[in-house]
Structure formats: C-alpha cells, structure tokens
C-alpha cells in the first residue's frame, strides 16, 4: 500500500468528528447558585422513593465550578466536539419572563473556555430539566410550555450563537413524554398515558417553534437539529404476530416522533393503536404539523441497545412506558449485558443508521450519545475499563459499517464525558469515560477515554 495504510484499518471520512456529551442536571451541581430556579428533577429527586438511594443533582460533578478542569481534560484527550446542555432554570428561574444573566454568564465562560482549547461546542437547549414553575402549570401537557420553550431558546441563542454554531433543541423528547408522563419513572413522575401523548405533541411543537425562532436569528453556518433516542425493535419470529409486535413498538419508540419531524405527520397505524386512550389528538391545532416539520440541518441519534419484543394476548395492556401499547410483551435485553443490565448488540446501531439514512437520505446524522455503564476498578491509580472500551470499539465499528454502506454519519460522541447523575438510579451507574470520585470530585481518565482519544487523533479504527 503506497500510503502505508494497513488495508484492514477502518478509516473514517475526512472531517468525521469525535467527542463526548453531558447534560446540565447530570453534572453541574450548584443547584441554587447564581439565582438558578428549581427544576422538575430537583423536585423529583427530593421526593422519597423516586431516585435510587435518595441521590439528587447536588453536587453531582460540581462541573459548574470545575468546568475549566473538565475542559482541560477534554483538550488533553484531543476531543474535537463537546456536547453539553443548557439549564433552563438557570436562564429563566421560573421558566418565563425575567432572564438571569448570571446563569447565561456560566455558559458564556464555558463556551469561551472550549473555544480557547480548540473544542467545538455543541449546545442542547433542553435535556429534561424543566423549570418547576412551568410544571406547576401542567408542564409539557400544557400547550403554553411549547411557546415558553421557543422564547427561552431564542434567549440562549441570542447570547451564545456568535460562538456556538451547532445547536439541538430537545434531547430525547420520547423520554420527556413517556418516561415522565406515562411510565412515571422520570420527572415529573406522572402516570397518565393519554396525557403523555399530549406531552409528546407539545414537545414536538416546542421544537418546531424553537426551530422557527432560531432560524429567524441564525446565520448560514449555524446548524439546527433535534436529538432522538431511537432503537431497532427485534423479535424471534417472522409470522404475522411477531411482525405486529415489532410494528407496534417501532411505531411508539421510533416513528411516532420521527415521522412528523420529517413532514409526514403522525403515523396512521400508531394513531389507530392508541385510539382507545381517547381524544388526546384534540391538542393538535392547525399549523402545528407544519411547525414541527421545519427542516432540520442534521439529526442527532442516541443509541444504547436494541429493543426485544414478543407477541402477547391482543387484550394485554403492556405495562411500562409506551402509551396505549397492547398485545406485546417487552423482553429483557440480550447479548452480554452491561453493568446496568443493558444489552450489547452493536449490529443494531448499523441497522438503525442505515434505516435512518433510508428514511431521510438528505439529512446528515450525528451519533450524539452512545455508551455503557460498568463498575470501575481503580488499579494502581489507573482504570482499565476493558468492557466499556470494548463496547465503544464495537459501536464505532458499527458506525463505520453503516458509513461504508452509505449512511451519512458525521460524528460520534461518547456518553458520557464524566460519571454523573444517572437519573432514576442516581450515582449507582457510571457511564463516564472519565471516572469521578463523588467524595473528593477527583477525575481520573479511563482506558475508554484514551481509546476515544486515539480515535480522535487517527480518525481510524485499527484492525
Ligand atoms: C440517555 O437516555 C440520556 O440522554 C442520558 O441523559 C442518559 O444518562 C443516558 O442515556 C444513559 O441512560 O425500557 O422503557 O424502561 C437513554 C434513553 C431510553 C434509556 C429508555 C433507558 C429504558 C426505558 N433511555 N430506556 S424502558
């Protein structure tokens, strides 16, 4: 080989970027600093029995005070992109009206520090920390929240868009709607399937209104997106019953939110499946679907594992997070399990990226989150997280396979930069590529971070 490449090396396209992601509530701590208002996750985590071990977002990784050290670690690793989220209650403590400039100043400092270190900031406007004052008025079940989100988004964009060129509106609206208002395992902890469908619509509407507001303010080199948690749905049979089970769950997990974003409206089969829940569709007004279909410049996809299902008695109402789901049994994850008991089946990521490319051939895709939780063992000051590293390499290979087969994937971001507050299970699960000692706040780079650093430096996966 004249270029000296090893043939079997998997080379990524020029410009493919590598980085890591976090979310405000999961890392920042400092929950009352600088006028920050209360979020639904402060309330939820303070409610006994909601979060494992009574863990809260205080102090988490104390990133609010330690962001310089954290950016320095990213720079040391040579990460090219850092995806973070902005805490709405830091910017508008009660979710509307008055802007808290001290909150904006934090993100100002963070962005400047990233740029000074040569790291491209990628901002997410909402990663689940709704101001409690808005939840008190109905949260995402209340249509007004969509309007408030667009207003808030516009405020943040005005303050940071001179330096932040890459933006996402919502992180995983599926989780906000269905874990928050149907299964109730996330804040605000409501279990009302019909209400969760209204929430889903208002989340999409909030995204659409924010897209319109940001477009009106943006320059040509700003790119705007939304981030979805998508998961291929797998089953053990090919008969009608098995295919129906897959169709129903794929509908509620993937197509219900993706189709309207791509301008196709809500999928008719899913609407028919959930019809028995009543008239939640009354919340859809003229113009909503057009707003939701405002073109995005790229799509963020978060992937962890495929979803396994089996057919069940048609009258069986499937318990859990999917509103209106009937006749399906949700099966446990497969493959060697992670420390969190999640599946490891990287082929599902290839399938997902190729499916998405087929659904939206002109929309570039970014893997905005992918990662795994395992307990860490510190040996001689080092953390050889071989299982997390193997998960990373398997999934990076899966991304490469998708690209080879035509998918337009532009970058890969590991979840997460730091061990952090893992929502309903608190600090019990570690997704970080950097270890955090929650007693001392000491950071230790893991083998997985070194591996990501090598990927970022070489843009290839050695055979
Ligand atoms: C992401 O969500 C989040 O964006 C991030 O904040 C989080 O820390 C990270 O993943 C790790 O959890 O089987 O119906 O009970 C993950 C998306 C989708 C993962 C639903 C858990 C199980 C729901 N989640 N899934 S269910």
TrEMBL record:
One of its GO terms (molecular function) is beta-glucosidase activity. Its EC number is 3.2.1.21. It holds the Pfam family Glyco_hydro_1. Gene3D superfamilies: Glycosidases. InterPro entries: GH, GH_1_N_CS, Glyco_hydro_1, Glyco_hydro_1_beta-glucosidase. The keyword Hydrolase applies. Coiled coil: none annotated. It catalyses: Hydrolysis of terminal, non-reducing beta-D-glucosyl residues with release of beta-D-glucose. Keywords: Carbohydrate metabolism, Cellulose degradation, Glycosidase, Hydrolase, Polysaccharide degradation. Belongs to the glycosyl hydrolase 1 family. This is Beta-glucosidase. It comes from Kibdelosporangium banguiense.
């Amino acid at each position: 080989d004249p270029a000296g490449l090893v043939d079997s090396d998997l080379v990524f396209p020029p410009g493919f970027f590598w980085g890591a992601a976090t979310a405000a509530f999961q890392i920042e701590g400092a929950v009352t600093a600088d006028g920050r208002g209360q979020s639904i996750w402060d309330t939820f985590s303070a409610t006994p029995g909601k979060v494992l071990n009574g863990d809260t977002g205080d102090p988490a990784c104390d990133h609010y005070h330690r962001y310089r050290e954290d950016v320095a670690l990213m720079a040391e690793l040579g990460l090219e992109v850092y995806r973070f989220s902005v805490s709405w209650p830091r910017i508008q403590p009660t979710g509307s009206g008055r802007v808290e400039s001290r909150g904006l100043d934090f993100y100002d400092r963070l962005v400047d520090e990233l740029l000074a270190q040569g790291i491209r900031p990628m901002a997410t406007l909402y990663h689940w920390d709704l101001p409690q004052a808005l939840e008190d008025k109905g949260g995402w079940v209340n249509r007004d929240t969509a309007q408030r989100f667009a207003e808030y988004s516009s405020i943040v964009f005005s303050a940071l868009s001179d330096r932040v060129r890459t933006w996402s509106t919502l992180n995983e609206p599926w989780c906000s709607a269905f874990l928050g208002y149907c299964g109730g395992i996330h804040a605000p902890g409501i279990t009302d399937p019909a209400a969760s469908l209204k929430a889903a619509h208002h989340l999409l509407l909030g995204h659409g209104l924010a897209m319109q507001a940001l477009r009106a303010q943006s320059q040509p080199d700003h790119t705007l997106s939304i981030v979805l948690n998508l998961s291929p749905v797998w089953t053990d049979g090919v008969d009608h019953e098995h295919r129906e089970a897959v169709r129903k769950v794929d509908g509620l997990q993937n197509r219900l939110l993706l189709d309207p974003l791509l301008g196709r409206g809500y999928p008719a089969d899913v609407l028919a499946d959930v019809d028995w829940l009543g008239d939640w569709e009354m919340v859809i007004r003229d113009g909503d679907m057009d707003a939701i279909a405002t073109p995005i410049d790229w799509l963020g996809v978060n992937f962890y594992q495929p979803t396994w299902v089996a057919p069940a008695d048609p009258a069986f109402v499937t318990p859990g997070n999917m509103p209106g789901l009937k006749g399906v049994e949700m099966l446990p994850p497969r493959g060697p399990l992670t420390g969190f008991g999640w599946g490891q089946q990287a082929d599902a990521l290839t399938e997902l990226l190729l499916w998405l490319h087929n659904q939206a051939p002109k929309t570039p895709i970014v893997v905005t989150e992918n990662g795994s939780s395992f307990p860490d063992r510190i040996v001689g000051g080092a953390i050889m997280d071989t299982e997390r590293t193997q998960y990373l390499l398997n999934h990076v290979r899966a991304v490469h396979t998708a690209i080879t087969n035509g998918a337009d994937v532009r970058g890969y971001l590991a979840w997460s930069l730091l061990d952090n507050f893992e929502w309903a299970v608190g600090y019990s699960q570690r997704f970080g590529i950097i270890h955090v000692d929650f007693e001392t706040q000491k950071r230790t780079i893991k083998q997985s971070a070194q591996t990501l650093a090598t990927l970022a430096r070489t843009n290839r996966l050695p055979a």
